[in-house]
Amino acid sequence: SFLKGNVVDEIENFEKKMLEASELLDYEKAKEYRDIISDLNVIKEKQKMMNDLYEADVIGYANLDDKLSIQVFHIRDAKMVERNAFFFEEKGDVEENFLSFVGQFYLNNNNPLPKELIMPEADYSVLPDEIKSKIIIPKRGRKKELLDLVKVNALDKLKSSLKVIELKLKKEENLEKSLKETFGINDASLIESFDNSSIQGEFRVSAMVTYKNLAKSPNLYRKFKSKTTNLGDASLINEVILRRYK
After folding, report:
1. Angstrom distance (rounded) from CA 158 to CA 152
2. pTM of the model
3. Closest residue by Cα to residue 120 from 84, 152, 86
C-alpha cells in the first residue's frame, strides 16, 4: 500500500496501532509507531512539494576542488521515481560543462525529455530549441525548494566522493611507504608477484600478477609453462624468475 503511494492511509493505520499499544500500556511499541508516523509525515510533505510537478526532471550541480557533481531527479506522476548522480573532472568553465552535460544527456544518451526541465540560472541559448522550450528557472516556491534540494544533494555527493579519493590516496601513501621501508627500496611503483600451480605435480604453471602505482594491471599479467619437470616450487620459481628478467 505504501509503495503504491498511499502514505495518508498508512499514517492513519499506524495511528490506530499507536493508540491500541498505549491502551495496552505497551509504551515501547507505541513509541516505535510514533517514530514511523513521524517518518511518514516527512514523506507526505515531500509528496506535497511535488504535486505540481507531474512530469519533470530537476537538474542541479555543485563544483569543488576542480570536480563537478551533477544530480538529476526524475519526477513522474508527481512522484520521484529515480535519481542519477554524475561526477566529472572539471575542465574549463563550470557553466559550459553543465550545459554540455544537459545537451548530451538528452540528445546523445537518448534520455526522454519530460514536460518540464527545472534548472538553475544559466545562459541556455546554446542548447537546441527542443530542450530550451522546456526549461524553467524557478525563483521561489516548491520548484525552487526542490531545485535547492538537488543542489544540496550534488554538493553532498561531491564532498563524499572527494573524501573517498582522499582516504584512498592516504592509504596508498602509507602502503607505498611501508613497502619501501620493509624491502629497503626507493621505488614501489611497479610490483610483480609470482606463484606456482600444478595438478598432482603435473601441468606445472607459474603466474605473474602486476601492480602499477599500487593498482592491479591485468594487461601486464603473464603466465609461464614450466620447461622442465619434477621441479620443486623453489626451483620452478627460480626458472621463471630467470626467464622473466634474464
Report:
1. 10
2. 0.55
3. 152
